[in-house]
Design brief:
Layout lengths: L2 H26 L13 H6 L8 H10 L2 H7 L3 H21 L5 H4 L2 H25 L2 H6 L5
Helix pairs in contact: 1-3, 1-5, 3-4, 3-5
Length: 147
């Protein structure tokens, strides 16, 4: 097997893992403690502040439950993550089967990458401003390992 199909298989496996892990957490969370559970994000555990990706797992869990409002509350990019993973699985599978490449000009477009990075940075900045304005220092410390 050449390295190109192997990389595509890794991409498919990664997208499947991103979709499956929140689903298994949802199945495991019988008492519905997910909203009160301590975050496993190393950045949030160390600082008490959310990182740019904090909340995506919870967003996917609530999307799987059918609660779009809570999904968007935890992370606006959660539903987009699901869509991107499904699209990646479909495209990479098609590329392996047909031995052709699709959407390379779009997927490897620097402008699109910068646009998405700027959107995530703006969203994260807004989240940090909201977080600081709605949490006391004690609340922030309670969300870290320093409580």
């Amino acid at each position: 097997m050449s390295s190109l199909p192997t990389r595509k298989l890794y991409g498919i496996a990664g997208a499947l893992a991103i979709l499956a892990i929140p689903y298994f957490i949802l199945l495991w969370d019988e008492q519905q403690q997910i909203e009160r559970a301590q975050s496993l994000c190393p950045f949030k555990m160390a600082t008490g502040f959310p990182c740019p990706g904090c909340g995506i797992t919870k967003s996917l869990i609530f999307l799987y439950k059918g609660d779009l409002a809570k999904s968007l509350y935890y992370h606006v990019f959660g539903p987009l993550t699901v869509l991107a993973c499904i699209l990646a699985i479909a495209v990479l599978t098609a590329e392996i089967v047909t031995k052709k490449t699709y959407f390379n000009k779009i997927l490897f477009n620097k402008r699109l990458a910068y646009l998405l990075a700027a959107a995530l940075a703006a969203y994260h900045f807004a989240r940090i401003v909201w977080f600081v304005s709605t949490h006391s220092v004690d609340d922030i410390l309670r969300e870290s390992v320093w409580r």
